[in-house]
Amino acid sequence: MNLPPTEHEEYDMDLLLWRHAEAEEGSPDDTRRLTERGHHQAETMARWLAEHAPKDLRIVVSPATRTQQTIGAWTPHFETTVAVGTSATADDLLAAVGWPDAGGAVLVVGHQPTLGEVAARLLQGDEAGGLSVRKGALWWLRRRERDGVGETVLRTALSPEML
Fold first, then answer.
1. Per CATH, is 22-162 categorized as 3.40.50.2300?
2. Do 94 and 108 touch, CB atoms closer than 8 A?
């Protein structure tokens, strides 16, 4: 699956939301590890990202073990911050990435319900109820201006099973 070229499209910022892959049950929550299926999900999405991710991508990851393992399937180059961790809010995440004023492209590897709340707020204008981001899935949102009005566009939403 190839995304259409974007060199000529004017946009302010890309935000890629990648929910950690499937993890074992148990506690403490922050130390849960990926299952065998989770490792496969992470590797599948990593292959897609290797081909399609924006250049100069900033990567921000929760300190939870399962998110660290998820991004580790793709790259060792990322920032770790509790601002996108298991207790993070949509406001925390958006502040951590500087949405929409920072510009460029940011990938966040994080958790539900925060990722779904961020997607709901940016796409619907309200995070109440949120949206459900499947384990291992990636949602790519783009902030652009059209006719003087800022809007958020869902560029793609993929689950590892679709790839």
1. no
2. no
SS3 helix, strand, coil % of the chain, rounded to 5?
A: 35, 25, 40
Sheet order of strands, 138-146 included:
79-80, 57-61, 104-110, 13-19, 138-146, 149-158
List the chain domain ranges: 22-162
Q: Are 61 and 109 spatial neighbours (Cβ–Cβ below 8 Å)?
A: yes
Residue 10 pLDDT > 90: no
What is the radius of gyration, based on Cα positions, of the chain?
Answer: 15
Cis-peptide, bond into residue 113, ω within 30° of zero: yes
Q: Which residues 6+ apart lie within 8 Å of 159 measured at CB?
A: 134, 136, 137
Count of CB atoms within 10 A of residue 138's CB? 24
User: Who's near 69: CB < 8 A, 6+ residues apart?
Assistant: 20, 21, 33, 34, 38, 39, 42
Tens of pLDDT, residues 19-48: 999 999 999 999 999 999 999 999 999 999
Q: Which of 84, 61, 82 shows the shortest CA–CA distance to 73? A: 61
With CA atoms as reference, report the closest residue to 64 among 102, 20, 94, 98. Answer: 20
